Amino acid sequence: MDPHLLRTFVTVAGTRSFSAAAQELGYTQSAVSQQIAALESDLGATLLHRRPVALTDAGARLLEHAGPILLRLSAARADVVRLSGEPAATVVLGATPFAGSTRVAAVLASVQRAMPRVRFTLLLTGRDAVAAGVATGTLDVGLVDGVTAPSDPLPLPDAGQLATSVLVENTAVVAFPAGHPFAGRRSLGLADLADATWIDAPDVATPLPQLRALAHSGGFRDGFCYPGTDTAGLLALVAAGAGLALLPGPVTHPGVVGVAVTLPRLVHRVELVHGSLTPPARVLAEAFRP
Amino acid sequence: MDPHLLRTFVTVAGTRSFSAAAQELGYTQSAVSQQIAALESDLGATLLHRRPVALTDAGARLLEHAGPILLRLSAARADVVRLSGEPAATVVLGATPFAGSTRVAAVLASVQRAMPRVRFTLLLTGRDAVAAGVATGTLDVGLVDGVTAPSDPLPLPDAGQLATSVLVENTAVVAFPAGHPFAGRRSLGLADLADATWIDAPDVATPLPQLRALAHSGGFRDGFCYPGTDTAGLLALVAAGAGLALLPGPVTHPGVVGVAVTLPRLVHRVELVHGSLTPPARVLAEAFRP
DNA sequence: TCCACGACATCAGTATTGCTTATCTCGGTA
DNA sequence: TACCGAGATAAGCAATACTGATGTCGTGGA
């Protein structure tokens, strides 16, 4: 199971086309066809239905493994390369939107002042992209925020070998439009809201599948998908009544009211995540710790 | 980073010899030398010192990644092959020694009676071997036991995609030789025993590194290494005063007394672990659930 | 119903890769 | 200093994995 074959398999599955995958990867269509055939004969199973291209059960199963494997492979490469490269004069900090708040800016500014020769960059993206970036070395340090049970770590994509430490914990709140029947409450249980409409904003708010897991129940249907990473945009949607969202408190946005979740006990947390640190990246990471 | 190269790298690191690794893998020494050279030039780093062969820092880092990657790779293969293979007429159950207790035998016997055409096998080994076996398809179903905090799952090697479910929880006890000053107590805290001598029996009792993590402290020096998987043998060592061990209660062995651990709160737990199940394996798995 | 077109499969040819055998080089040791 | 063991290097050859051309199948339009 050559990683090359795995990569073209993932691409074909993603584009649902051999030709498109070939173009994307810089191969001929013929090569892609042969690679998939090789994979299938190696595993002794049909991975894709043809015309139209669709995953078989076996293919779907393989796809679940392929992503993490490829991620880890490049994490390994990045990890080794980082060790042997010359000390970088640049540090890239990746953060999820709510994690990249005022304190981040203050810390970055002070560290920048302490090390004027180093070039710092702040990149705001989704949770998974931060974790993957840290694993593959695109990012030196990551800040990820999310909602979980007090004793659990934040769920991150499996890239292995990532050190995490808790930076901030505060209350998790559900964001309601002002005037919503629940908006006046002081606290609430998640299960009461299983029938409500939620905004599916996996990169800013709590992803819906995780929400269901936290509440130990189904429901939580999504009325609106928000793939962006802008917090104000999400809150505007909430204010407009497009749906609810589980967020870090306190919420300060006109027309939006945050109500703390008390059942189950939940916290919003910001975690610092990194692999092996270059010296300037280490300074930055230390600066974040209390 | 071809998995083949990774595999020979792991073998070379393990044997600390190019020639021995070549023999073990069925290559010539020349091939191994070229493979390592290819890996090093690909990553742009020296992975091994030569004469004598030893890991560089970069090599050590790569080695940490290589194991999990190779494991996941074969887990992926096994997972796909299992889906497309014909229904097997054989089920292999792997279990750690304390997990494979009386109830296991009873369940196996009754399932065997229900499906006389199917050939069942019970294999007792270490924790990691059970998890790896289930991931790679050598085992259909695994039973793993161990000690953790009540809210945490048992720590298993990262093979991804393994479903686990809790079967039994009971108290965790420290096994003392009769006459030990602590042997008369009704309960105790782990930290009190950080200075005691422990038996390092990673496949039967709680591994020492995990013990340190549970107690949030150092210490726990090992007086004796017990790599076997026989429970009676371990208890005999405890009775002889070779050291202590953290085990599932209750302990019934002449000369050994078990005292429950109450600080931190710990439980001994047996977990069922499996990948995708063949029909007869599913029946077996269901039979274990309460 | 038939044809044309789009999309994947197959085939032949070739460049590359990755092995083996043979030989060389280096470091430790008597 | 000479030898021996162990890894590096070189040349040759077989297997692999591309490209380009052609074949086959399903679909949509006339």
Automatic annotation (TrEMBL), chains A, B:
The record's keywords, sorted A to Z, are:
DNA-binding, Transcription, Transcription regulation
Q: Which Gene3D superfamilies match?
A: 3.40.190.290, Winged helix-like DNA-binding domain superfamily/Winged helix DNA-binding domain
Similarity remark: Belongs to the LysR transcriptional regulatory family.
Which segments constitute the HTH lysR-type domain?
1-56
GO cellular component terms attached to this protein's record: protein-DNA complex
Q: By what name is this protein known?
A: HTH lysR-type domain-containing protein
> Any idea which GO molecular function terms this record carries?
DNA binding; DNA-binding transcription factor activity
Q: Which Pfam families match?
A: HTH_1, LysR_substrate
InterPro entries referenced in this protein's UniProt entry, alphabetically:
LysR_HTH_N, LysR_subst-bd, WH-like_DNA-bd_sf, WH_DNA-bd_sf
